[in-house]
Structures are given as structure tokens and as C-alpha cells.
């Protein structure tokens, strides 16, 4: 009897050991969702369209300088480019001294993730400098965010999120992701988007992983809005997802259809682009459930959105080279 019990115990321990390792080292993933391939735009886009070719991938606003920063990765690993649109000047191209994968902005600067570290772009001067993070020279960084305290958070292709100190050394690490596809900061709380796990995870102030939640059927894009929310598009599930932070909690999940992808928020509305129909929709969340307020036709392939609260202008960036659409007084009557 003792030998039977000992044998069963050994089998149980062996099974436990086998089941633990895959979970700890290889997160279960799905095929990441992507934007729909938009049809040609049949309806003239609302507002004004500013010319911009290539294949821009992201857009962010810097409130300090009032600049829209549009990020275009380099071709075949070449030098990336930031196009800076100011209120009263012609757009300026800032060629980065190397490839880059993601962009953030704040305090009059833009920050672009690159292998081993990041570039800092002075938006007034149009100059770019590179910072290499100690011990991370070979890390393929894929996401970047700037916290309210000015400190940066970087995410990598191999599933690490690194929180940096003021002098850009590593203060904390979370290593629980399949890949860090997006990062935003709501105050000093950073939130990670992992498309393969279709999840969102908050990072504590020390950089460790906090609460993690499933995000629909195929989350693709993440943004933080001025009202303290974190916004996510569930492209595969056709939903707008709204999260609160501290603690991380899903507050709303609302069907929008049309392969939602681009997302941004203002003080009054949340904006979602529908890539299947070249449309952008503004939703009011003040009643606890999204209520559609405005809807505009857009440029083809409206993959990236940004909003300037100072002027009430919504920017829609085409990923197919159809330009940057500026819709002024976007929250008003269309």
C-alpha cells in the first residue's frame, strides 16, 4: 500500500512539474487580429486632408507644443520618420538615425522605441538623440509610453515590460507577456496590450505586473484618454472596450462593428475608426454606455487617430498613404 501511495505521489508531482513549465515560459496565444483592408474611399472625407504618403503606423499629440506627431517606420529596417504638424507651420520631417517601432509624446518631446533603447526628439528643434538602456543592447523594443512623472516604460518583442528611472536605467521588469504590442500610461500607471494573448495588464509603480484581464476576441490598439480611462479596440470581436485603472477593471464593452482599429479619446468623446468602411465614430461615455454622437467619412485605411483638445481637432491618419485628415470642431454637429 505504501509503495502504491508513493507511486501516485510521484506521478502527481511529475504531472505538476510538467504542467507548470509551459505556462511559466510560453503563454498561450492566438493569431493576432489586424485592421481590415479598407475599400477605396467612395465618400469625400470630412474636414481637410493634409498630404502624407508612405505607410504611417501611429499618431500621438504632444500637448506641451500643440504638435501632432505621425510615426512612419523605415522600409526594410531602414530609418524611421516622424512628421510633426504644428498649428501655424508647415509639417516638418524628422528622420530618426535608425529603425523604430513605436512612438509616444509628452513635455515637448517625442520618444520612439528602437533596438536597445529609444530615440528622443525635441519637437521644437527637430533634433533626435539616441539612448541605449544598460544591459538591453540586443533587446528588440516594440512599444513605449511616458508616465505622468516623465519616466518611460518600454516593451519588447520577447514579452518584457521595463520601467525606467529618471536617468533611464531599469527600475523594474515584468516578464509575463507573449509580446508587448502596445503601452499607454494613465497617470503613473502603465498598461500593456498583448495581442497574442488578447489581454491588458497593469504595471505597478515598481514595474512589476499587476492585474491582467482578457480583452475581447482580438484586441489590437490601446489608448489613454483625458478622463482617466484606458481604451481598447477589439477588432476581431467588433467592440469598443473601456477600462479603469488602479485597479484595472473592465467598465464597458460595446459592439461597434466594422473592424474597429484606430482609437483615441477627448474630454467629451471617445473616437473609434472602422477600417471596414472608412468611418470614424465619436461616442459619449458619460451615461455609462457608449452613445453615438457623430460619424464622419474618412480617408482610406484610417488606422491611427489622435485628438487635440486645445483646438477640438480630430486627426485621422491613413496607413495607405491617403494623407492626414483634420476634422475641426469634430465633436460638434457634422
Explain this structure to me?
The structure is a single chain. The chain is mostly beta strands and 334 residues long. It has a single domain, classed as YVTN repeat-like/Quinoprotein amine dehydrogenase (Methylamine Dehydrogenase, Chain H, 7 Propeller). 7% of the residues lie in helices and 46% in strands. The protein is built from 1 helix and 28 strands. Strands 1-28-27-26 form a 4-stranded antiparallel beta sheet, with no helix packed on it. The longest helix is centred in the N-terminal third of the chain and has 24 residues. It is globular, with a radius of gyration of 21 Å. The termini are far apart.
Topology:
Elements: H1 2-25, E1 48-50, E2 58-62, E3 67-72, E4 81-85, E5 92-95, E6 102-106, E7 109-114, E8 117-122, E9 127-132, E10 141-146, E11 152-156, E12 161-164, E13 170-174, E14 182-186, E15 189-194, E16 199-203, E17 209-214, E18 219-224, E19 229-234, E20 239-244, E21 249-255, E22 260-265, E23 270-274, E24 279-284, E25 291-297, E26 302-308, E27 313-318, E28 324-327
Antiparallel strand pairs: 1-28, 2-3, 3-4, 4-5, 6-7, 7-8, 8-9, 10-11, 11-12, 12-13, 14-15, 15-16, 16-17, 18-19, 19-20, 20-21, 22-23, 23-24, 24-25, 26-27, 27-28
Describe the structure concisely for a colleague.
The chain has 334 residues and is mainly beta. It is 7% helix and 46% strand.
What are the defining features of this structure?
4-stranded antiparallel beta sheet; mainly beta; 334 residues; Methylamine Dehydrogenase, Chain H
